[in-house]
Amino acid sequence: MLDYSKLAAIRLGYGLSPVIESPADPQALVATVAEAGPKSGDITMDVARQVQLQVKAIRDENADDRLEQQRALSRETLTRGARQVKRRLARAVRDPGGFGERLVQFWADHFTVRAGNGIETLTSSAMVTEAIRPHITGKFGDMMFAAETHPAMVLYLDQQRSVGPNSRAAQRAPNRNLGLNENLAREMIELHSLGVTADYSQEDVRELASLLTGLYYDPASPRIFLPGRAEPGAETVLGVDYGGEEPARLEDIRAVIAHLAAHEATAAHIARKMAVHFIADDPPQPLVDRLTRVFADTEGDLAAMNLTLAEAPELETHLRQKVRQPLDFMVASLRAIGLDGPDVMALTEQEVRGWLMRGLTAMGQPWSQPRGPDGWPEEAQAWATPQGIAARTDWIIRQLPRLRKDMPDPRDLMHAAFGDAASEALQWAVPKAENAREGIAVVLASAEFNRR
Amino acid sequence: MLSRRLFLKSGALLGCSAAAHPFLSSITFASAPGDNRLVVIILRGAMDGLDVFQPYGDPELAQLRRKLSVGPQNGAHDLDGFFALHPALGDLMPLWKAGELGFVPAVSTPYRDKRSHFDGQDILEAGSGTDMPLRAQRDGWLNRLLQNMPGVESHTAYSVGLDEMRILEGPAATRSWSPATQFRLSPQGQRLLQHVWHDDPLFREAGSQAVQIISDGIEAVNEPGGPTRDARAIAQFAAARLNEETRIASFSISGWDSHAQQEKTLQRPMQRLAAAILTLKEGLGANWGRTTVLAMTEFGRTVRENGGGGTDHGTGGAMLMAGGAIRGGRALGDWPGLRESDLYAGRDLMPLRDIRAYAAWAMHDLFNVQNDILERAVFPDLDMGDNPGILA
Questions:
Q1: CATH for B102
Q2: Interface predicted TM-score of the whole assembly (ipTM), two decimals
Q3: Same domain (yes/no): B322, B190
């Protein structure tokens, strides 16, 4: 039998650690979530802007050594990106309950921005600092507004290129064929708020796209809204009229996002998504109903949602129904072998890339690069594949021992990872391994360790 | 005839070899899988068929698109005086000339109107109509094909790469591997892991397969670097399996969601698609002549360019076919036209036929599967219509 601290650490956190104690009850657990707020030293858009301006300056100056300058900047940017990955992993490893950092991961995935290059790794990390972390115990609507208007999102879902066809900007440049781009509008309804099963139409997507025109990002300016790019006139989204004033205002975008965030379909969509992520691929309906009610009654208060999850009896009844995604598995492994946050911070950026990020790629979860804006899959079948399990085992055998010189005895590791709750099969198998390295693989590649 | 749900359920209850079921075998005609090979490539993100196979002979095209899909004037390769192949796929021109490349310009799944990638891909891979809730559709149509073929073993079908391939999921056992995966463990370590996986059906099945693949001596594939490396490695791995006892392989190529700067955005996925097809041809050697490749996407894109030099989610789109077994060098099916009144919802290419009908006829001709199985079990409630004659 697992006590609450162990149960919650496995289900809502990153598993057990022999050196970090987990909170003993739901109130204590949710109290630790605030720790996942932004901290000084977390990357912001200021840094990403500087790098983008440097890129432009090198291009504009066009000096003889332009190529070398570009290469040096690109190397530095990659290193900076790896440092952000290292900070995220270190915070996850040392978070006592793990719940706060798991929530950061959940919401960053809900508002996915894909990072395909070095600069995008910086902007997507900045979005976590500026749009996700400040709101994980706040209101969903505030997080949604911060996320949808963040430069990383504006760039990722092509809002940058969406211009009102009758805006001043489009009229000034008739040859540039400026017009609407539906990408952000569609995903804002389909993925971020109402969900695809809700009652909305192509016309709502089109009208929202028209209303969102004006959102913009320019590294040289702090402004995120340019009225000259906005489509004149009012728009009707889900039966409500917005805008129409001249000049257009960011306030109308704030209003439509507040409406989407407060929609009853959004409550049901977010409730189900949290239950799927934290409890079971096919979540128990009573839990989904409770979460939906809490979301609706509290106007999307995420602290109340967090407490509902922390207190859920389904933590116990649906134990190990989820397969850990590769990132969760990696953090859980680092915790189980007794590493703490500072141990992770002591790695070089090159080691982070070679030993950790490459491992995530092989397991099918390259950092910040899900296939599309719907983020990573949730179903067990997507991760517990032959190649996925092989890649996890391979990482345990080849990379994990580099991370700690004095690796624990496999039997101690089993105790650290499961308390007294290791299965009989595991207790039988672990002592029979040929060597310590394979003994550790038997513990960490087992089904029970790869589930939560 | 069995109702579809009952039919699917009976397959699920059976768990492993559906062909052994007395009732199923009685309606299963085909002999053993035979020598023909089928490769299905899922193009994720909604490929713009109008840009891949540019209908430059349609006078409306130039009105709808100013920068994109300009045709031979802009370096595209003329195919038949009406369609031209996008320049980034130029490496495939020898296949077109040899009759080993063809396409259907205007097809779609039954999915309409919400234009969600994720639902669109689920429906494409499930092969279902729109009468069942999406969450209930876990099985893929290639898996249902396997359930209805005799003599099938787990290595008969492979999903290749790290992407989840729902098209192959379901009760019939299949294999799944990624060409870059490494896995070294002593025989004792393998035994111990299988012991601790044993009570968890998902891990037991996947873990045993990993151990099996390693003991078969299947090594990681090492392709030289470059932007198409992953696609080449996947195709090389698939070809190696198909040269053995595998007859069906499936993998995906992503990156087709070209909302902005389409000209630039589509370079990579097109290069990857071309490299994958050419690597298959090279790797398959003489077996290429018995191979059919179908490349399908969830839906097409808007006929008009949008504000960012890209295109938004649409409806009708193109399907690409390749392989030594096909009768290529031509466009199959009709062209709906691009006038306002020709379009779907005033914005999208009008699909003229269900993409599943083409897949069904390909399976019919490749594996000798009967129409009533294809129309009821593999693609429930599909009307296959006339044979479009994909195969030579």
A1: 3.40.720
A2: 0.94
A3: no
* B228 & B324 share domain: yes
Task: Tell me the residue range of the domain where B276 lies.
Answer: 4-176+222-378
Domain assignment of residue B36, yes or no: yes
| Whether residue B189 sits in one domain with residue B302 | no
Give the pLDDT band (50/70/90) at residue B134: low
**Do the chains contact at A391 and B66, CB–CB below 8 Å?**
no
Q: Which residue from A181, A190, A433 is facing B189, i.e. has the nearest CB?
A: A433
* Residue B385 within a domain: no
Handedness of CA B202, B207, B210, B213 (dihedral sign): negative
Identify the domain boundary among B219, B238, B273: B219
* Confidence category of residue B2, pLDDT binned at 50, 70, 90: very low
Strand B291-297 to B37-44 pairing: parallel
For the segment B343-362, what is each residue's pLDDT rounded down to a tens digit? 999 999 999 999 999 999 99
Residues B269, B204, single domain; the answer is no
Q: Is some CB atom of chain A closer than 8 A to the CB atom of B163?
A: yes
Give yes or no for residue B14 having a pLDDT over 90: no
A389, A418, A426: which to substitute to probe chain B, counting the most B Cβ within 10 Å? A389
Answer yes or no: is B383 within a domain: no
Tell me how many domains chain B contains: 2
- Interface contact A371-B254, CB threshold 8 A: yes
The dihedral built from the CA positions of residue B28, B32, B35 and B37, taken in this order, carries a sign that is positive
Confidence of residue B137 (pLDDT cuts 50, 70, 90): low
Residue A34, strand partner residues: none
Same-domain pairing of B276 and B294: yes
CB contact under 8 A, A202 and B114: yes
Q: Are residues B106 and B199 in the same domain?
A: no
pLDDT for residue A398: 93
- Residues of chain B numbered 309-328 and touching chain A (CB < 8 Å): 309-310, 312-313
Contacts of A445 in chain B (CB under 8 A): 193
Local mean pLDDT, 10-residue blocks, chain A (452 residues): 93 96 96 95 94 94 92 93 95 96 98 91 96 98 98 95 94 88 96 96 96 96 94 96 89 97 98 98 98 98 98 97 98 97 96 96 94 94 95 96 94 94 95 94 98 98
Q: Where are the domains of chain A?
A: 155-262, 326-444
Length of chain B: 392
Residue B72 lies in a domain: yes
Instruction: Nearest by CB to B116, from A157, A177, A196: name it.
Output: A196
- Asked if the bond preceding A247 is cis, omega within 30° of 0, the reply is yes
Sequence-distant (≥ 6) Cβ neighbours of residue B230 within 8 angstroms: B161, B180, B272
DSSP string of B58-117?
STTHHHH-SSS---GGGTPEESSSS-EE-GGGGGGHHHHHTT-EEEEEEEE-S--SS--H
Query: Do B202 and A190 count as a contact with CB atoms less than 8 A apart?
Result: no
